[in-house]
Design a protein that fits this description.
The structure is a homodimer of 241-residue chains. A four-stranded mixed sheet of chain A has the order 2-1-3-4, covered by helices on one side. Helix content of chain A is 52%, strand content 6%. In chain A, helix 1 packs across helix 6 and helix 1 crosses helix 9. The first copy, chain A, is an alpha+beta fold. Chain A folds into two domains: 80 residues, Glutaredoxin (3-Layer(aba) Sandwich); 133 residues, Up-down Bundle (Glutathione S-transferase Yfyf (Class Pi), Chain A, domain 2). At the A-B interface, strand 4, helix 3, helix 4 and helix 5 of A face strand 4, helix 3, helix 4 and helix 5 of B.
Chain lengths: 241, 241
Amino acid sequence: MTYELYYWDGIQGRGEFVRLALEDAGADYVDVTRATGRGTSEMLKRMESTTEAYVPFAPPFLRDGDQTISHVANILFYLGPKVGLAPDDEALRCFANGLQLTVTDFIAEVHDTHHPIATSKYYEEQKAEARDRAFEFVTNRIPKYLGYFERILAQNPEGGGHAVGRTTTYVDLSLFQVIEGLRYAFAKAMRHYEESYPNLMKLHASVKARPNIAAYLASSRRLAFNEDGIFRRYPELDIAP
Amino acid sequence: MTYELYYWDGIQGRGEFVRLALEDAGADYVDVTRATGRGTSEMLKRMESTTEAYVPFAPPFLRDGDQTISHVANILFYLGPKVGLAPDDEALRCFANGLQLTVTDFIAEVHDTHHPIATSKYYEEQKAEARDRAFEFVTNRIPKYLGYFERILAQNPEGGGHAVGRTTTYVDLSLFQVIEGLRYAFAKAMRHYEESYPNLMKLHASVKARPNIAAYLASSRRLAFNEDGIFRRYPELDIAP
């Protein structure tokens, strides 16, 4: 069965957390909005249906046969066990879900560094507020979240450098993406902070070296970060802590 | 087995979504930070441990024996089936989780109406930005989210006025709380919008009338909304659409 991933074309965005799992697993999937003969209109039609049941609020969502699964953490919780990227143990799966939801919260905060007032307006219309929010983000929020994930890695009773259990899970892949994005958008902060989080940096390097991830990153399927996405490089927001 | 709920004392906040499920189910639980002989320090100790595994990032979290479950949606996904507030069908449970994560996103936006720049600062230090964000929230975000939930209720193939399937789930309880909170914090907007969402209003009334919910709401365990919580009544943010 081919999975169908629905997400905005042209950006990595939240879809990338799902894409990394599908790619690492070598899963058979189609990226609907980018696929020949398909496109964004198909995604919008599913979201805007006023007759269908189980419509998603927003992308990304995944279709597996007739089932629609929405929200990154929900998709990964569903997909993880099927593609070998979740722990076997049920309690650990629950813990992994909690970690992924912490990633979700962090990503929402990243988004709000450039859109602190209104998603319906351009960044250029909220630049002063974005600067203030980015200052808070760089000063307080990056160390709070990265410090937490560093502790999770250090305090994993299985050791081995994974977030959960003794194998690579979708949480590890998501933490890789978090570091990639932060390095792009907040380069000065990351240069300052990285040495404080050795376990996270090691995890990032080890995910990057996984054969399917390395192949994906080198492919045209991996879009570059850009200023339509969630992680944006605006020099005025790249504040040194 | 007694469930242990950990959340900030003195506010409903995000803990309330879990509390409503525990109360509706008549589950045996202790609200740790409010319990005699216990308190907030116990919660902080669990969060701040630098030796334990599986530490939560933030409250609320639930303890069930030795297992710690964090994040509202994760807690409800775990708890729902055990207390009879989740659908039996696995695909519907997954859909319920997606809906609960939409509630989560909405609640984060509610929070940011009074804290658009920095959670580390007082509301009074970001009032001008809060006013702008609240305007966006009232104008665009309330109708976007409530319109979505209204469609979910209307397009539920089981009918019956529930968000998922044909029975009351934790999602219904959470939607009740969303309406309660909005009526408190954004009274003018809700007076304007409510007639557009008849299914949501009916669901709100039916949850409110459930015997265990009614008893809980009348009890001292239900704290009043206040201006330390997530839903806050600031006259200057109670903007008419």
